[in-house]
Design a protein that fits this description.
CATH topology: UDP-N-acetylmuramoyl-L-alanine:D-glutamate ligase
CATH class: Alpha Beta
Order of helices and strands: EEEHEHEEEHEHHEHEHHEEEHHH
Number of strands: 13
Shape: globular
Largest sheet: 9 strands, mixed
Structural class: alpha/beta
CATH architecture: 3-Layer(aba) Sandwich
Oligomer: single chain
Helix content: 25-40%
Distance between the termini: 38 Å
């Protein structure tokens, strides 16, 4: 197994994707897949050749075994995935749409992953990694996972590891929007890179302009803010530079789920390789555009060769 470049943590679920359009109560056939923002990032980085690890708990059940086997097949390090005999693995249903966002119904309350706690944290495992990527989802799942997330963040910063945060706002998981904003921002102020969507940035900061959103976090000590602008691309800002990177043209959007996670894969991978920020954001836009052209959450994510070829074939339109 490769040495870890990046580690992430969170909840993975079995996902049942509808095989034909229609409301979920009318669909009779589904295809099983894997869902989870953090597993998407782990898989995307592994496909690009990075040592990628994911920490969590899964139930000692068929869904848990499915998740473990799928991640093994994707070459994701799962040495910090714990089996829980008490609580089940969550799952979700996802509709097929011809345009727009799909309908998703979650069955995750009380899942094994929601019982991941500070007591489960393995310092040696996390120290193997150069970079921690986290999302706002574990902060929302339960008090236990919030404690784990805060501990992981503090531990990695204390040990001079870079940390990136994708807010990945899930309002339905929070008691209130005020709590969500407070907790997400408390974490964001401690990380090196913040990667919100434009709408998320507005909710979290109260600003609508990407430059103002970025400045809000830079003023708190964040090194880099990259704001996803959808088809328009992305805006990035540091203390010394800023710019907008145009998006990659897409003829048909099949499914938008997983595009933000793919964007994070591109940006993180570029920064790990020492690319200029502009080029790292180009990668993020490229993988995000590939993601929306496929039905699964991560099946559009490319290998390194596929990514370089895709960028080479489309970069004229971007620049």
């Amino acid at each position: 197994m490769k040495a870890l470049d990046v580690v992430t943590f969170g909840e993975a679920m079995a996902m049942f994707m509808a095989n034909h359009p229609g409301s979920l109560d009318e669909v009779s056939q589904f295809t099983r897949e894997l869902a989870g923002a953090e597993t998407n990032v782990a898989i995307g980085l592994a496909r690009l050749g990075f040592g990628s690890g994911w920490a969590s708990k899964v139930g000692s059940d068929a869904f848990g075994r499915f998740i473990i086997n799928r991640l093994k097949n994707e070459n994701v390090n799962i040495n910090h995935v714990l089996l829980d005999n008490r609580y089940p693995t969550g799952f979700q249903l996802k509709s097929m749409v011809l345009e727009g966002d799909p309908e998703v119904q979650y069955f995750r309350k009380g899942s094994a992953a929601s019982h991941l706690s500070i007591e489960d944290f393995n310092e040696e495992y996390f120290l193997e990694a150069k970079h921690l990527h986290m999302t706002g989802i574990p902060l929302a799942l339960s008090e236990k996972t919030r404690g784990f997330a805060k501990h992981a963040l503090a531990f990695m910063k204390k040990n001079n590891r870079k940390v990136s945060l994708d807010p990945n706002l899930r309002p339905t998981l929070w008691a209130s929007q005020e709590e969500m904003v407070r907790e997400i921002n408390e974490a964001a102020f401690q990380v090196d890179y913040v990667l919100p969507g434009l709408a998320e940035g507005e909710i979290l900061t109260g600003f609508k302009n990407p430059r103002d959103i970025a400045s809000f976090y830079l003023d708190k000590g964040v090194q880099l803010v990259v704001i996803k602008l959808g088809p328009a691309g992305a805006f990035y800002k540091t203390a010394s530079e800023e710019g907008t990177v145009l998006g990659f043209p897409v003829e048909k959007v099949v499914d938008t789920v997983g595009a933000g996670d793919g964007f994070a894969v591109g940006v993180i991978s570029g920064l790990l390789e020492g690319l200029p920020i502009y080029d790292a954001v180009v990668r993020g836009n490229a993988i995000g555009s590939l993601a929306v052209q496929s039905p699964g959450d991560n099946d559009g994510y490319p290998t390194k060769v596929q990514l370089e070829k895709y960028i080479e074939n489309h970069i004229q339109g971007v620049k």
